[in-house]
Write a structure and sequence with these properties.
The complex is a heterodimer of chains A (about 550) and B (about 325). Chain A is mainly alpha-helical. Helices cover about 60% and strands about 10% of the residues of chain A. Chain B has four domains: about 60 residues, Arc Repressor Mutant, subunit A (Orthogonal Bundle); about 80 residues, Winged helix-like DNA-binding domain superfamily/Winged helix DNA-binding domain (Arc Repressor Mutant, subunit A, Orthogonal Bundle), CATH 1.10.10; about 100 residues, Arc Repressor Mutant, subunit A (Orthogonal Bundle), CATH 1.10.10; about 35 residues, no CATH class. The chains are: A mainly alpha (about 550), B alpha+beta (about 325).
Chain lengths: ~550, ~325
């Protein structure tokens, strides 16, 4: 829970849930597990608001509660986890993935679930159907069964999972000393029925909302939905399985790396292998389960008509490649092959580090960096000789890298007194600590981008409000059937330079948004690498 | 007087030092490879060790004898007259310094080291060195490792590679442009070979094998290009190819090759192949913060902050 992580979590909470939740959330992040009374005392927020904030955090899985330190009977303690809050940054990527895999229906299911945190299947299906119906042409509506089948598909491929059975989940009163069950780690559900779709009686079609006074209608309709209709799946709440999405992203990264390094066909073979081992490999496995060449041959997509011996050649080439994405695990069944997941992640992280050094300091510094990664420890003179860079420049570059902590110095004394003239000084690069450092830099960068975005919005607040007012006036005029002259008169209330400013502002905000997503990709790679090297708790 | 034909032992007058010296000189002539103390003793059994030592020292100082050491002891050899004449007019100290420099061979020796070996004061050394240089017996060569350091070696010797730096240095300057040009040429060659292999659309194994080039092939290509004024050896080309590996543009494998195939060294051959990077430039560097030189000083509310960052402003308006 570093300072940068807390700062970023605070900004994300503020944007998505408001300032009160941000205060409570950051307080919990900084101070660890605390009970309700302490939180109220230290943040100075009223009991009511604190309860509501904790409710929001628990609903989204950012906070868990367990019985106090002094044993059962003592007040429950609440603990926030920064990982879950940082996932908010990745929501757009999850939604986009669902869209590519399962179409618009899948996209809206995931979006709704991400917004609400936990939902029952029935309420989700109804909401999604209504939304889809909204966007369809007049007279057509979305059938509940279609949405249900999309939902079931998502569950089958483990993208959605049931929430762990904690009693009292979803109620508004978060301070009840609920029976806290399994040491709450909602990210690794190890209970049975995790992916079982409940039998649910839900027949009907999506309802279209009327466009006028839709705000009122929606609220009434929502209230009505909550009260009536039980569909046989009460108490079974669903959440998005982030781990599964992460595995999918990781597979995508490996496949595109293979496509860049080798060629399209090799990447297709690797994609097939990864698809076959999607549900059989555990998330923390070093490599996938061994697959025989026969199985791979049978599972290749039919569009790739490669004969068997050619497939064998491709597999051999993949195994021989220095990047070691694929390894050979045996000879039975025509050769057993595995995908080396941890090694692939390490290679991707390494490429990320090299790319950062290259863009920031130039290609010659990148040459020195790669040289040190390969050769581990080198003296100053050796670095100059291997990299074929003049001595003065090499020295300069090495010292710059050293001051940025990308390169470390190892002293090896020849004599017991560490006299500088009689010590070896070796330069070295440690991949894991450097990756961690870059990860923190990424968090800081995203926080900077968000702050800049908020600043830009604040600067142009007056202009934005004016344009919103004008849009509202225009909309009401159009609805009540005004003449074109009135419309143009209203439109001209915004002057041309103001329009330009608004346009520039829109561009800036878009750029900052997309930059956040790009940095998030780097965060994902580095986080996966750091997590893969963590030794599993025994 | 040729003593080789007449095997008459001449009675030497042991009390006359000049006679002793002459005798020793004759012995040296008899054994051109050098004589040991033992030989002299055998020849002049009644010679006292002290007198023998005096005679030898005299001859050494006159520059007519050379003192050598082999595994069994000291050897004395007659110096040939030509080199003896060179040293005429120089005194002992100069001869000593000259000998030290000669021993250093083609690596040369630094003036401080000469001082250590001869135990002469610095001023003397400098005088002698100037003297010898003016007589064109030694020369000073600037070392490439430390540009202020000068090493001395005999006039007619070629300096060693470690001093001049080999093919990459001309006049003590590292030729970075030359290295760059070679770097690019090698890379282009390997890249075009890899592309040709990819376009040939044969089976993948054949494709990959034909995209490889041995270090010998690259060496021949560079020689034929004729961009180098200096002759480059295969080792030099391999160092260039290694820098391409550290640039991440090329990968290398080693295969076993039959002895005698062209370009193989000790039964192995190194193969090089152009490769593509495995990822695009990462997301972090597409933002101004990823490249910012004052990243660590940036805080909200400080002098440098995201709100007033000029790099961001430039980037947003781009």
């Amino acid at each position: 829970m570093t300072a940068q992580e807390v700062r970023l979590c605070g900004l994300l909470l503020r944007e998505h849930f408001g300032e009160v939740v941000e205060k409570v959330g950051t307080h919990l992040l900084r101070s660890g597990a605390q009970n309700l009374r302490t939180i109220i005392h230290e943040t100075g927020i009223s009991l009511d608001l604190v309860k509501k904030s904790l409710c929001v955090l628990v609903q989204h899985g950012a906070c868990v509660f367990s019985s106090g330190r002094k044993g059962p009977g003592s007040p429950t303690e609440y603990q926030a986890s920064s990982d879950r809050i940082l996932r908010i940054l990745r929501y757009p990527r999850y939604i986009y993935t669902a869209k590519t895999l399962y179409g618009d229906t899948g996209e809206i299911i995931i979006e709704e679930l991400l917004q609400r945190g936990h939902m029952t299947m029935s309420s989700n299906v109804k909401t999604v159907a209504d939304r889809l119906t909204q966007n369809m042409e007049e007279g057509r509506s979305m059938d509940y069964s279609e949405v249900s089948s999309a939902f079931s598909n998502l569950v089958e491929t483990h993208f959605l999972q049931r929430c762990p059975p904690l009693a009292g989940l979803g109620t508004t009163d978060a301070s009840t000393p609920a029976t806290p069950a399994t040491p709450a780690n909602p990210t690794t559900p190890s209970f049975p029925d995790c992916y079982k779709v409940p039998h649910m009686t839900l027949i009907g079609r999506g309802k279209r909302q009327l466009s006028s006074e839709d705000g009122e209608e929606q609220r009434n309709a929502k209230k009505a939905k909550l009260d009536s209709d039980t569909h046989g799946d009460e108490g079974i709440y669903w959440q998005v399985n982030f781990e599964r999405f992460h595995l999918h992203f990781r597979d995508q990264a490996i496949i595109s790396a293979v496509a860049n390094k080798l060629d399209q066909t090799s990447s297709e073979i690797v994609r097939t292998m990864l698809r076959m081992s999607e549900v059989t490999t555990s998330p923390t496995a070093t490599c996938t389960k061994p697959l025989s060449a026969n199985e791979i041959f049978r599972s290749l997509p039919s569009s790739y008509n490669i004969p068997r011996p050619i497939l064998d050649q491709y597999l051999t080439l993949l195994v021989d490649d220095p990047m070691e994405f694929v390894g050979k695990a045996g000879e039975s069944g025509g050769g057993m092959y595995v995908v080396n997941l941890h090694r692939a992640l390490a290679n991707l992280a390494r490429a990320t580090l090299e790319s950062v050094v290259q863009e920031r300091f130039g290609s010659r510094s990148a040459r020195i960096f790669r040289l040190l990664l390969r050769k581990r420890h080198l003296e100053q003179k050796q670095v100059e000789d291997f990299a074929m860079i003049p001595a003065k420049e090499a020295k300069d570059m090495l010292y710059t890298l050293l001051s940025q902590n990308l390169v470390q110095l190892q002293e090896i004394p020849k004599t017991p007194d560490y006299a500088p003239s009689r010590t070896f000084y070796l330069y070295t690069v440690n991949q894991l600590p450097t990756a961690r450092m870059l990860l923190q830099n990424c968090y800081k960068t995203v926080a900077n981008l968000i702050e800049r975005r908020l600043y830009e919005t604040k600067e142009s607040k007056r202009l934005l409000e004016k344009s919103q007012r004008i849009e509202a006036i225009l909309a009401s005029l159009q609805a009540s059937g005004a003449e074109p002259e009135q419309l143009t008169e209203v439109e001209e209330m915004i002057t041309a330079p103001e329009k330009q400013q608004l346009e520039a502002l829109r561009l800036h905000i878009n750029k900052l948004d997309s930059a956040e997503n790009q940095v998030d990709e780097t965060i994902f790679l580095l986080e996966s690498y750091v997590n893969s090297t963590a030794t599993p708790a025994s | 007087m040729k003593m080789a034909e007449v095997k008459v032992k001449k009675e030497t007058n042991l009390s006359d030092p000049a006679e002793v010296e002459n005798r020793i000189k004759e012995l040296c002539q008899q054994f051109p490879h050098g004589i040991t103390d033992q030989v002299i003793q055998n020849d002049l059994p009644h010679l006292e060790p002290q007198q023998r030592a005096m005679a030898i020292n005299k001859l050494l100082s006159l520059g007519q004898l050379d003192l050598l050491r082999n595994s069994s002891g000291l050897l004395y050899r007659l110096k040939d007259t030509q080199s003896a004449s060179k040293m005429k007019g120089s005194d002992n100290q100069e001869k000593l310094v000259y000998q030290i420099i000669e021993d250093a061979g083609n690596k040369g020796i630094w003036s401080r080291d000469i001082r250590f070996k001869s135990n002469l004061p610095l001023t003397e050394i400098n005088k002698i060195l100037k003297n010898l240089e003016s007589k064109k017996l030694i020369k000073a060569v600037k070392s490439v490792a430390a540009s202020k350091k000068k090493v001395y070696m005999l006039y007619n010797l070629q300096p060693d590679r470690s001093v001049t730096g080999g093919a990459w240095y001309s006049d003590q300057d590292f030729e970075s442009e030359f290295v760059e040009v070679l770097n690019q040429q090698c890379f282009k060659f390997l890249q075009s070979k890899a592309e040709a292999a990819r376009d040939s659309k044969q089976s993948p194994m054949v494709q990959r094998n034909s995209s490889f080039a041995t270090s010998h092939e690259v060496w021949k290509y560079i020689c034929e290009l004729g961009i180098s004024k200096v002759d480059l050896s295969m080792d030099d080309i391999e160092t260039i190819l290694n820098t391409l590996i550290y640039d991440g543009k090329v990968e290398m494998t080693v295969i076993a090759a039959k002895e005698g195939t062209v370009g193989s060294v000790d039964g192995q051959m190194k193969l090089y192949r152009g490769v593509n990077p495995i990822i695009q430039p990462t997301g972090l560097v597409k933002t101004p913060c990823g490249l910012c030189p004052v990243f660590d000083d940036c805080h909200e509310g400080g002098e440098i902050s995201p709100s007033n960052c000029i790099y961001m402003t430039e980037w947003l308006d781009f």
